[in-house]
Fold each of these.
Amino acid sequence: MDHHGVTLEGLYQARRRLAGETVRTPLIRSAALSARFDAEILLKLETHQPTGAFKLRGATNMIAALIERHGREALAAGVVTASTGNHGRAVAYAASRLGLPAVICLSRLVPPDKVAAIEALGAEVRRVGASQDEAFEEVERLVRERGMTLIPPFDDPLVAAGQGTVGLELMEDAPDLDRVIVGLSGGGLLGGIGAAIKAIRPACLVTGVSLSQGAAMWASLQAGRPVAVGEVESLGDSLGGGIGADNRCTLALVREVMDDHLQVSERAIASAMVALLEHEKVLVEGAAAVGLAALEAHALEHPTLDVRGQRVALILSGNAVSLATLDRARALAGR
Ligand SMILES: *Cc1c(COP(=O)(O)O)cnc(C)c1O
């Protein structure tokens, strides 16, 4: 089966490349959540990755695959991307592990602590312009003029296959899984996991969760083509951003593998973040709490998401959250 370039063989190759570079993360059962939702609730702890998020899988797979295919010399100019968040850290870390130079382009508005965090992972940070778009123009220039290789955050079969190794691990650790609930932005994570699951256990449902505002994938799926939406500040900031006007992989992939799609409010995200910390002792960022937020908002009274009796995995995708943001979440959740 070929899901827009993501094949089962590609997923197993990704898994081989990731061995020793990324963590095979634990899947733990939550007794409290299982009782609360009358289901078997399992938590996939991508927060255990060395960079704190699953994005290390996709970046590592793509860089390692390019080295395999073209040789190290062909990539000597290094890899480049523009991301302040989990993807920037992932590319910096993966490149340094695999012995290639990396440049991360950031706008001048990015706060110094985020710049320092990426530099600490061994990448060169290049600060240009006053927006993410201008930072991306610098990426394109480095690709054109210096022969660097772009590592995109989601829209590539190698990146999606890397993220999809989460799905392979789920199928091994919970072979009778009924549903996986995944945060959805550009669709590399959901698309990759979905490709793995639909190849191995098609009966397992794939539920995507988007922000209620600023969700480009939601609007694009409805329009049937990539749609740009305004960015909105959110506790789930890792789910913000567009899907790319020339999206070639993940929009079609998500449409094919996703069974249902929900949105969650800021308050629901806040409440889920606090609950995961308080009861499960897991610190997650907002984007990683949307699965529990969706259960709390849609699976209790008059459920539109009925998980009763099901075995359900929630992907706790990352932990990039500051104490200030955690305070904001607590204030919004009222706890
Ligand atoms: C990037 C990211 C997501 C969404 O992944 P996509 O592949 O863009 O859909 C979810 N959670 C976290 C923590 C992320 O960094």
Amino acid sequence: MTGVGGTEWRLRCAVCGREHAVQHAAPCLDCGAPVTAHRVSGGFDVAEGAPGVWQYAGPLGLDPADAWMSLGETMTPVIPDGPLARRHGLGAVHLKLDHLCPTGSFKDRAVAAAVARGRGSGATGIVCASSGNAAASAAAYGARAGLPVILVMPSRTPRGKLLASGAYGATQLLVDGDYSVSFAVARELARRDGYANVTTTYVNPWAVTALRSAAYDLYRQLDGAPDAVVVPTSAGPLVHGLVSGFEDLRAWGLVDRVPRVVAAQPEGCAPIARAWAEGAERVREWEQVETDVSGLDDPLRGYAHDGTLTLETVRRSGGTAVAVSDDRVERERRRLAEASGVHVEPAGAIGVAALEELRIRGDLQPGERVVCMLTGTGLKRPLESGRPPLRAESLERAVAAVAEETT
Ligand SMILES: *Cc1c(COP(=O)(O)O)cnc(C)c1O
Ligand SMILES: [Zn+2]
């Protein structure tokens, strides 16, 4: 099975090993576990000047002729946060600003590739289940590709996230229940209509594969591999993409090791961190979601397999999994905004919020170089200002109000 861009790929079930056709974008037909993509041949090259993930058209097996569908979803900035590194006694903390992807989350990397692949194999439209961010990605890339888009989201999706995907002319469908219900609806719609399902769990192996681009970026931007990468984690495709991407780079002789990848989850929905703490082999679905961290509130109902694959991937990297309270996430999110000038949504801050616990547990050592993935923008879910605005009805009063505030 030959891909384009000079690489050859196979799709294989992560549990039973059954091989599937390259256009298969669904769980394993035999056992229901995730199907993942494996590169059989091909190396690393960067198509300088190509946009977004098409810079990696070769290593990701994307068709260079599809590059017009890109919105620029790669090489987001990496910045050092000195005060954060000093506070935790680390050698360096780098923030990967993936919330600056075109629609405000890293999901753009996955969806750009999945939409292009779907269109290439004749899909007549795009369907996507989402807690908000993947919906914005699917709506934008679907519009760009000229395909109709159906978005399936939980009815309690935050308003800012609904607005973010509503602008592109897609059909928005709100369904009651948690994310797992939306997930099931999207699968049903895709089955019936010949739509490509670009839901960013492990459903679409090409979406997951494109997340390797985040590892390729870090390799280029940091001049090698960091010691650890802390990743906001729901089902875990981003974890999978980072580990697989660094494994690629190691196989190609470009880095000497794979960083330890840490899965960070909110305490109120932490199926992977719970399995880690119990030393379990398998992840069980989460019973009752009790977190406001939108995007990390997937109980994995009906596809706990996905969590198990992520757990195995974390172990393979030598990493760990950790749960963080909503309060701590919100505190660190405000600190990131007020002290570092970076405004992310709660999910985007959870990696930074996990650093203290990771230091206490000894999972991060003094002097190590750590990357925190900032996965989603604050603009869809803004922090309330800590200080109400001053108001004034005239020039004189405005000047007086400011003088009073600042003396
Ligand atoms: C989807 C999402 C995540 C979780 O990513 P997974 O790859 O599903 O584990 C983290 N942060 C944000 C902002 C997201 O939208
Ligand atoms: Zn299988």
